[in-house]
């Protein structure tokens, strides 16, 4: 399964509250202009600047270069030309990330009004606009994410570079000062390191290899570009959201059903936002890696035929209901004999073994988190004979249900 890198990038930049638009030179309609800068230029009577900006992008933008733009309204953007292989109808297409600002909105309004000679009565309207634009006091974290994904999109990070542009209307590619070139080189080097580690992490999660991913993270000392402020909780949260998205995509490549992926991803997103300390997030990162690996181990259907996938999904989603081999075969619309033979061939397990195993796994949660009598736990996972449940539990877990419950409730 090939991941849509642009779609993934859009999800990642959302973690920073920043918008991403995919555009080409035909975007001259009013609605498109509104999306570009949230209506600022139209409000001020400068809509033509956007079309001129498109023309300059078409003329000057080159592949494998990330352009960092600051316009005359002190709004910032990151943009790049999409490689031809990802464009449709032979058009030139571009990604625009932004706008965002990097200083106090009220100070920006004062400077913009003075620089552009705008009427003072526009001050309140401008403040309302700038307060609606994301503020990134330090854009390094976002820059790292965008550079990493641009590397994936180009399929080759060699030659990846940064160019700074003061505005779209007067495209200026003057040579950087030596210190700026050095800073950009260091940033790209840090991104390349993260690029390598992210690849290794995603590969480990795709196969559910918990030992490997822990090994990778031990060497991952510079995953985040160094923050420029002491209070970096928001910065760490942003990176955790990025991890959550990347891990989700890795599990998706392992052919895990989206229902499972969405459930765990949403839960982690809430925990990330609710964290009050950086130490909580450090602990959560290990939990995320472990649970995403377990998700692959328990629910990956890589290499399964569509019929067996349908059968597995039906069993998994109805495991607490009465199930029979006949009802499963009818649900996937094939004969029972063919289903049984194909299921054993593709999974290495019989249908009955798989169903019983899943039912015992489902019961583990109830045993650990509720006080339900064991016969009720068995009934809730579709096993109505307590003695049969006891035999199955001992077979799959190597102990009794009572022993398992006691072990799970022991205090460390």
UniProtKB/TrEMBL annotation:
Domain of life, source organism: Bacteria
Domain HTH araC/xylS-type: 309-407
A GO term, aspect molecular function: sequence-specific DNA binding
Pfam hit, one: HTH_18
Keyword match Repeat: no
SUPFAM superfamilies in the cross-refs: Homeodomain-like
InterPro entries, per database record: Homeodomain-like_sf, HTH_AraC, HTH_AraC-typ_CS
Gene3D superfamilies, A to Z: Homeodomain-like
Full protein name: Transcriptional regulator, AraC family
Originating organism: Marvinbryantia formatexigens DSM 14469
UniProt lineage: Bacteria, Bacillati, Bacillota, Clostridia, Lachnospirales
């Amino acid at each position: 399964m090939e991941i849509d890198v642009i779609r993934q990038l859009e999800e990642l930049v959302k973690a920073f509250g920043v918008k991403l638009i995919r555009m080409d030179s035909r975007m001259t309609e009013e609605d498109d202009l509104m999306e570009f800068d949230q209506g600022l230029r139209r409000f001020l009577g400068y809509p033509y600047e956007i079309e001129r900006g498109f023309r300059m992008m078409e003329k000057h933008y080159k592949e494998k270069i990330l352009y960092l733009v600051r316009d005359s309204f002190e709004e910032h953007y990151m943009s790049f030309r999409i490689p031809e292989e990802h464009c449709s109808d032979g058009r030139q297409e571009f990604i625009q990330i932004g706008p965002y600002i990097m200083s106090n909105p009220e100070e920006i309004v004062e400077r913009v009004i003075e620089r552009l000679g705008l009427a003072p009565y526009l001050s309140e309207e401008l403040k309302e606009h700038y307060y609606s634009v994301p503020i990134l006091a330090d854009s390094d974290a976002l820059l790292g994410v965008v550079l990493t994904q641009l590397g994936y999109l180009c399929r080759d990070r060699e030659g990846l570079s940064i160019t700074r542009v003061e505005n779209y209307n007067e495209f200026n590619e003057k040579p950087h000062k030596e210190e700026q070139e050095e800073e950009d080189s260091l940033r790209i080097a840090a991104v390349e390191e993260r690029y390598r580690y992210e690849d290794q992490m995603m590969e480990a999660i795709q196969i559910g290899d918990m030992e490997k991913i822990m090994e990778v993270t031990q060497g991952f000392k510079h995953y985040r570009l160094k923050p420029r402020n002491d209070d970096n909780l928001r910065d760490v949260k942003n990176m955790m959201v990025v991890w959550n998205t990347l891990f989700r995509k890795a599990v998706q490549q392992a052919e895990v059903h989206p229902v499972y992926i969405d459930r765990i991803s949403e839960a982690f997103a809430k925990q990330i936002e609710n964290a009050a300390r950086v130490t909580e997030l450090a602990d959560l990162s290990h939990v995320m890696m472990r649970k995403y690996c377990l998700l692959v181990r328990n629910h990956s259907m890589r290499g399964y035929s569509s019929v067996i996938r349908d059968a597995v999904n039906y069993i998994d989603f109805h495991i607490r209901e009465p199930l029979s081999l006949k009802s499963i075969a009818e649900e996937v619309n094939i004969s029972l004999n063919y289903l049984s033979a194909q299921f054993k061939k593709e999974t290495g397990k019989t249908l009955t073994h798989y169903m019983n195993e899943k039912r015992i796994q489902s019961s583990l949660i109830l045993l650990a988190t509720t006080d339900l009598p064991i016969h009720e736990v068995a009934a809730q996972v579709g096993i109505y004979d307590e003695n049969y449940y006891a035999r199955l539990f001992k077979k799959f877990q190597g102990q009794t249900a009572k022993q398992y419950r006691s072990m799970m409730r022991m205090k460390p």
